[in-house]
Amino acid sequence: MKEGCHLTMRRHAGAAFGITVMVLAMLASQTVHASTLAAGAAGVTTGASSNPCGTSATPPVTYQHVIWIWMEDSTLPKVIGNSAAPYITSLAKECGYAKGWLDNVINGASNYVPGVAGANCNDETLHAIAPNGDVCITQGLSPAAKCTASSCKNTVAITSIFEQLQNVPGDSWKAYEESMPSNCFTSNTSSKTAPYYVRHNPAPYLSDLRIVGQLGGNTCATNDVAVPTTSCNGTSCTPNETSNPFYNDLTNNTLPSFSFVTPNACNNMHNKCTPYANKVTNGDQWLSTWLPIITGSPAYQSGNTAVFIMWDQGKVGSAIPNVIVAPTVVPGTVVPASTTINNVAALGTTETMLGLGPIGCATGTQGDGSKCPLGSTTDLRSLFNI
Prior knowledge:
The structure is a single chain. By secondary structure, this protein is α/β, with parallel strands linked by helices. The protein is 20% helix and 12% strand. The chain contains ten helices and twelve strands. The chain has helices spanning 19-28, 86-94, 112-117, 161-166, 220-223, 245-251, 279-295, 298-301, 343-353, 380-384, and strands at 35-36, 45-46, 65-71, 96-98, 173-178, 224-227, 231-232, 237-238, 258-262, 305-311, 323-325, 333-335. The strands form three sheets. The protein has an eight-stranded mixed β-sheet with strand order 6-5-9-3-10-11-4-12, with helices on both faces. The chain is globular and about 50 Å long.
């Protein structure tokens, strides 16, 4: 789809859920007794039970908030069931995961742009190497530091969920990028303890978010926000709550409709960083710090928020340890390996949860008419009771 010719659809998608699933959810339901967080943050509570799932039976037709947290480079058995990741293992059992959620979207290129757009090329296709005459976000590209109406190097002009939301009155998005030096930063940093990699941040690669006057202006500069580093010392992590837009939006009940959260390259399991002997443990401790803050927030406690913990890739064709957290997820949900899912299915599912229509491979068909990777249109709402 060419720049400026985007079509955003708004739909309120209802979902039919089986009676059996609903009964199981009600049996699993439990009353949440709220207490103030030890940090004393206004409006944030934690339940007497640590389980954030199974507290409600019927999911909302349309959600107010969906939060994605993207981690890095792990297969399912390296995380779920691994002693290096006790928190994620427990969370997966308390909520839900899938044995057939595969790394199959694109091989040899960043999965972040396909994750939010269902494509990584201007012709709305998926390619690890750009075809002649096309522009694709492929491995090693850094987006232009500045864009004009006539030039925005190493970006693509395709619709993403970000553009969809900013074109609908009342909807909104933010990307919360840990250890990014400033909003919409377009270069990697060299820090050994808190590295930021722009390839883990999809917004700067989307020209319609970068060009002043295009679809609301340079919204990357305002909505792709820098988040201070969470300190992890080898045994636990401590969030920096000062001037932290993600923490503030959680505690003040000001989350956008869609949140894209990227820990830095130590905390997302990409790098093995001092003092950790295992990078999986680093990411596990980061999640064990932030998930209780998220699930204790007013937005989550309202029953209208869902959290997708996702890995960009693991090993091509292998299962990745993605976990779905929402009040209506039946605790212990395990989708069998016979059901194929990929990260584009999370895009399509999120779009229906927020009342949007599908884009890119969430439709099942690439821009050139070819089929999308298997699992791109799998309905996660019915599988996870969301």
